Every structure is written in structure tokens, then in C-alpha cells.
Amino acid sequence: MPMLQDPSVKYQRFAPINLPQRTWPSKVLDKTPRWLSTDLRDGNQSLPDPMSVEEKKEYFHRLIDIGFKEIEVAFPAASQPDFDFTRYAIEHAPADVSIQVLSPCREELIARTVESLRGAKRATIHIYLATSACFREVVFGMTKEEALAKAVKCTELVRKLTKDDPSQQGTDWDFEFSPETFSDTDLDYAIEVCEAVTNAWNPSVEKPIILNLPATVEMATPNVYADQIEYFSTHVANRDKICISLHPHNDRGCAVAAAELGQMAGADRIEGCLFGNGERTGNVDLVTLALNLYTQGVSPKLDFSDINSVVQIVEKCNKIPVHQRAPYGGSLVVCAFSGSHQDAIKKGFNLYSKEAAAGKKPVWKLPYLPLDPEDIGRTYEAIIRVNSQSGKGGSAWVILRNLELDLPRGLQVAFSKVVQDKAEVKGQELTNNELCDLFKQEYYIDYEDEETNYPFKLVDYSISTPEKGLKQVDAELEVDGKVVKISGKGNGQLSAFNEAIRTHLNSDIEVKHYHEHSLGLDSKSRAATYIEVTLNGGKVSRWGVGIHADVSQASFLSLISILNGLKGNGEI
Ligand SMILES: CC(=O)SCCNC(=O)CCNC(=O)[C@H](O)C(C)(C)COP(=O)(O)OP(=O)(O)OC[C@H]1O[C@@H](n2cnc3c(N)ncnc32)[C@H](O)[C@@H]1OP(=O)(O)O
Ligand SMILES: CC(C)C(=O)C(=O)O
């Protein structure tokens, strides 16, 4: 069947909310909401292969380590393993963590659900009942009045079995009610049901009822959800005795936006899952919400400082990979392959590190990186990766991070051509090791003083001063296995050595640029030198690199590096 030419014959636009005095658009997110993780309930119920008890335990402890204080652990009436896991959770939860469980509005299931929590220090019973016309009519065949009466009856039952039961006084009880598919429910009716449920529970300012307003199915743009939340929050009675919770699903891909705008519209609490697992397109992603807050300077009070290990546990237990582009946690989200991005990031890092080294506390303002990857335990090494879309800055970054060589701009340009050719031939990303090996090969570097078979080798040399202002270098080179003696004079050591080579090769080789810096800070530090020469009447230009504990020797080695390159290309 083709898609419809006119989809309006089948699909209706969601009716907007009439809220001309809305205030949420001018609010900002400046406080941390109460978080509820429903990974082990809504997340788990949506998995093709639900978590084993062992996996649930591992996940549960990780949620506690991250800092969740409210965790929905199961639907205990659904199965014996869910019941048993609830028992495990209440036995192992720290005193400040509330264990939440879910039950439908069915009396026999509520009784079993309450039973699963017996002896808990802190517990939240969560019941739900569909209030939207579609669900009431299609799923339950209930009128508005019948649904309201059922919600009240079940709330009264929960109350009788929990906070009103003398044998249950050892538990600090909370109660949550969800008018299911709130996002598609007539707002005044949702308020009517929630007010009746609130009266049945009888909350206080100190111990508010949790009214959860789920976008069970995301029906419209996030501003519409925000209007619904503001309308509810400003029209419901006893607002000070109510904690408004949001439970956004991601059917239209806007759950994060809906949760954020919903908080601006008055919500106090957010329910969701790590990396957005959950029914269909998932629940709202709590990692994104938390780190979005963090990058606005507000502590989320959830700790993702080792995000890679969180990804690992989520992937292992859900048996679903976290997408490579998932905000914050995806393996590619702090990587740049393209040249202009790499260049900007490299410049940003340089400036940031300079300011930090100068003792300033710089504000994080890096091109393309909204969050310092180090804050979530991601290494800088992974940020810049090189393929055929990359430019000089990317390769230079990799060489700097891995070999500590801070290449001068001209050498960056020269090496990036070599990298480009290699990347095009490979047709894939070059790994850091491949890139470093390519650099060492291209510039014939004895990086670790390894035994090498390069055609030119510096065997020995001596430097003398035959007269004031003049240097003489006498050197022994090994050229294709044979030792040759060369000698030259100049106004410096490098020009003397260059003169010796010019004479030996009968070449017009001329040093154009020279750069040096030290490698390492301790007594074993070495010098890195970079030389650009021209030859053949200035028509050919080449870069060479030399590394040695002695800076003069390092500079001679950069010339030797150039000779090896010329020889390798058959140019001498
Ligand atoms: C939006 C959400 O995520 S809600 C949570 C959903 N999670 C789950 O369903 C996971 C656990 N569920 C289960 O194990 C089972 O569905 C059980 C134990 C709850 C019920 O199983 P069964 O009795 O076999 O019912 P079944 O699953 O086929 O159908 C659901 C029944 O509950 C009713 N129901 C659905 N939601 C609710 C509710 N909130 N309150 C009361 N009854 C409800 C349906 O109308 C249907 O009733 P019917 O059989 O009279 O038509
Ligand atoms: C039980 C409720 C909160 C739910 O999971 C939903 O509406 O999606």
C-alpha cells in the first residue's frame, strides 16, 4: 500500500490546548527534578529478552551507585521472578532509596503487589488506570464515571493495605497514580480523576501524593505537552500536596524536549530509562536529561563520570546496543572525523589548556563539544579520529597526543597529504597506531632509537670552532651500509652539517625553516627538531624530523630524515 496522498483522511491533527496565558516559555531549568528510574520495570517489560534476575541485580546496584533515590523495580503481580526481585530490592536498598512497584487497578493484583513490599524501609506503590477516551472505550469499555470510581476504589484499597494498616507502619509509604495516556486525555477529566484519587489517599504537604502524567504515547509537539502540564499544575486542587511526575515516551522523537518543557511548565519529577530504553521508541532518556542540565551549570545529582561503564551494563542487561550517536554516551559523539571540526576542536583545546595552565578557571566554550568529555570519563584520544574527510589538524592532534610531537604548520600540511593518500587507499578510518607508524615511516624516525635499516645513518660526528664565528662539523655517515666521512663549515652547527652534505651529494639543499621543542620534562627529556629544506633550485621542498637527547644531534637527524626520504623516493 502506498502512503496516502492526503493523510488527513486517516489522521487528525492533535487539538491544541487553549492556554493563552501560558508562562512556561519564559521559564528556565534551574533545579534538579526528582528522578525515577523505570529501567527495571518499563524498560524491562519492553525487552525481547527480559533481564535475568542476576542482570536485574547488577543493574539495580548500578542505579544506586549513579545516585537514583527512586527506582521502579518490577510489576510484582506479573510473575514470581518479579515478586522475588522486589524482595531482593527491598532487602538491599539503602535507607534513602525508595523502591517503587507497579500494579494495574485490579484488587487481587494490588494485594499481591503490596505483599511484595512488606518490610521495606521506603516504598512507593504505583497504580495506573486508563483515562483517555480511546483507551477507556477500546480497552476497558468503561464510562468516565466507572473509571473514576475504579481509580478511587483501588486507591482506598492501597491506603488500607499500606499506610492505614497497623502492621505496615515500619515502612515509609508513598503513593503514585498514573492516569494512563494522560497526553490524550481530556484535561478537565484527568484533573477530576486525579483530585478524587488525591482525596482518597489524603496526602500532606510533607508527604505529597505523586500524580504521574504520562505521555504513554507521544501525541503532539512538546509545547502541547508543556501546555497540558501547566494547565494541570495550575488548575488541580491541593497543588502543594502533589508532586507532579512526567513519564514521556518518545513516539515522535521529542521525549527529551517534552520532559524539559514539562518541567518548565511545573513538573517536579521525571520517570525514564538510561539511554531511552522502553516500550516502542522508548521512555525518555535520563542520561540526556541529566547531562543537559549539567551543561547548563546545574548539578543533576546523578553521577555519569564513568559513562562507558554505564553503557556497558545497559547494553549487557538490555541486550540492545546503545546507538553510536546516542547523546553523551554514544561511541561517536565525542569524535570528529572532518577536517574543519578537528581544526576547531584542536584550537579550542589549546586555548582552554593554556588558560587552565595559567591558573584561570576557564568556562567551557569549545567549538563542537558542548561537554568536556573528561567529565564523563571519556578520553581526549578518542575525540579526533582520522579518515579521508580529515585535514591537517586531525593528524597533527593524533601525533601530538601519541608521540608528543608538536608539528609546525608546514609539516602538518605536508604530512596531511600523505595521510589523505593512505586514507583514500584504505577507504576506512586510520587508527592512531597506523597514523603514528605512517609518520615514523614517512620521516624515517628512529623514535625509540630502534635498530633500523634506513639508507642514511649518522654514525658519529664532532664539532669544532676553527675560528671565531665559524663551526666545523666532521661526521661519519653510513650510506647503504658503507661508512663515508663528510666535513663542512658554516656559521652554525646545522649549517656546517648541511654544507658537509651539500658537498658530499653535490646538491643545492638549503635549510628554510627550523623548529624545536623538548619532549618530556625530566632529566631524560629529549629534543624534537623539524627542518624544512629546498633543493633543485628551490623547486622541491621537504620536511625532516629528528629526535635526540642532544639538540644538535636531533637537528642533524632531521637532515638525515630528509635524505632518507629523498632516497626512498629515488630522488637522490
Ligand atoms: C503503560 C504500561 O506500561 S502499563 C504496564 C504494562 N506492563 C505489563 O503488562 C507487564 C505485566 N503484565 C502482566 O503480567 C499481565 O498483563 C497481567 C498479570 C497484569 C494481567 O494478565 P491477564 O490477566 O492475563 O490479562 P492480559 O494481560 O491479557 O490483559 C490485560 C487485562 O487487564 C486489564 N487492564 C489493563 N490495564 C489495566 C489497568 N490499568 N487497571 C485494570 N485493568 C487493566 C485489561 O483491560 C485486560 O482486561 P480483560 O482481560 O478483562 O480484557
Ligand atoms: C504505567 C504508566 C505510567 C506507563 O508506563 C505509561 O503510561 O507509559
Number of helices: 17
In the CATH hierarchy, the third-tier topology of the largest domain is known as TIM Barrel
Strand content: 15-25%
Number of strands: 14
Mean pLDDT reading: 95
Would you state the CATH class of the largest domain? Alpha Beta
Radius of gyration: 34 Å
Shape: elongated
The hetero molecules present are:
acetyl coenzyme *A, 3-methyl-2-oxobutanoic acid
Textual characterization of the structure:
Helix 4 runs parallel beside helix 6 and helix 13 packs across helix 15. The protein folds into three domains: 26-318, Aldolase class I (TIM Barrel); 339-433, Helix Hairpins (Orthogonal Bundle); 456-568, Alpha-isopropylmalate synthase LeuA, regulatory domain (Double Stranded RNA Binding Domain, 2-Layer Sandwich), CATH 3.30.160. It has 572 residues and is of the alpha/beta class. 39% of the residues lie in helices and 20% in strands. It contains 17 helices and 14 strands. An eight-stranded parallel beta sheet has the order 1-8-7-6-5-4-3-2, sandwiched between helices. It has a three-stranded antiparallel beta sheet with strand order 9-10-11. 42% of the residues are buried. Helix 4 links the parallel strand 3 and strand 4. The model has no long low-confidence stretch (mean pLDDT 95). The chain starts with 33 loop residues before the first strand and ends with a helix. The structure holds acetyl coenzyme *A and 3-methyl-2-oxobutanoic acid (KIV). Residues 42, 102, 128, 178, 180, 212, 214, 216, 247, 249 line the site of 3-methyl-2-oxobutanoic acid. It is an enzyme of class 2 (transferase). Keywords: Amino-acid biosynthesis, Branched-chain amino acid biosynthesis, Leucine biosynthesis, Metal-binding, Transferase. It catalyses: 3-methyl-2-oxobutanoate + acetyl-CoA + H2O = (2S)-2-isopropylmalate + CoA + H(+). This is 2-isopropylmalate synthase. Pathway: Amino-acid biosynthesis; L-leucine biosynthesis; L-leucine from 3-methyl-2-oxobutanoate: step 1/4.
